[in-house]
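Lab notebook, bench 4. The sequencing result for the construct came back, and we need a structural model before the next group meeting so we can plan mutations. Quick request posted to the team channel:

Model the 3D structure of this chain.
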Amino acid sequence: MWRDALLVAGKDLRIELRSRVVLNQVLPFAIVVLGLFAFALGPDRAPMVQGAAGLFWVAVLFAAVLSVQRSFALEATDGTRDGLRLSGLDPAGVFLGKVLAVAAQLLALEAVLTAGVVLFYGARMHSYAAAVAAAVAGTAGLAAVGTIYGALAAGVRVRETLLPFLLLPVAAPVLLAGTRAWQAALGTGPGGDATDPWLSLLAVFAVVYLSIGVVLYGVVQEAA
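Done. Here's the predicted structure in token form:
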């Protein structure tokens, strides 16, 4: 399973390195989202600092939708999806490989978006460890649930609009817990909000959807 996961992840990441779609399209889109929020909130830094954590995770969520769509668009032509199904690769390995590729791209995007939060909103990080832990756990959850719903939507003609409709409501716990964890990390949470409960929620979300994907991805792949 792990060998197959590394093969699939390597394939997706090599294709992305050559095409640079995430670098040339998804990353600029996420930065523009942060910039538009900054313009909408006006010149006063106080509301921008207070809202920085939530706006960061909204931008990450939008970027996750685009990254997952890109991951499955790679296999939409020339029978690539059928070839992957017939290759003999473990479906759980295929799932984990796609999760690893999406998560790696999102973590790279989040590193740049963190710099954007500091630049646009004037936020200051009080706990880098908490912020990194929340980013890793939240990204794992988003990549897992996005891969499951991306596979479900892959065989549908309206997949570009169906995926956000399926993914965004389910990813709401990541948006909530990630925002609260980052508020604590930035020192903007209500009453010095602790990070532990929110990190636990992010971890549980990631474990649940990773487990579901490992067990059921073969069925989802066949249904799509």
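The mean pLDDT is 84.
Will bring this to the meeting.
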